[in-house]
Design goal:
This protein is 69% helix and 0% strand. It is mainly α. The termini are far apart. The N terminus is likely disordered.
């Protein structure tokens, strides 16, 4: 018998996606290059290294509005951190 992953709540889905790994990867990149790199370079690194961690398994899980809001919130937090750190104001 094949074991099936039963996702009953948003908390179960968050555990599958493990946001801590995403933020760890982002903080490693941002800590190394920070303000020394352009926004384009940072976004390219985030896209290749971090978003794959965030969206791993997304195709296999049922999506609902809570999960979409979680993804939007996470990406928005990263955008605010990068753009806020890059601004001279």
């Amino acid at each position: 018998m094949i074991n099936q992953l039963l996702l009953t709540s948003v908390a179960d889905i968050i555990n599958v996606f493990d946001l801590s790994k995403f933020f760890k990867a982002f903080n490693n990149i941002f800590g190394k290059v920070g303000r020394n790199a352009s926004e384009e370079v940072l976004f390219a690194l985030i896209k290749t290294k971090c978003l794959s961690i965030l969206f791993y398994g997304a195709e296999a899980c049922p999506t609902n509005s809570s999960l979409r809001q979680l993804f939007e919130f996470t990406v928005n937090e990263i955008l605010l951190k990068v753009c806020g750190a890059m601004s001279k104001d």
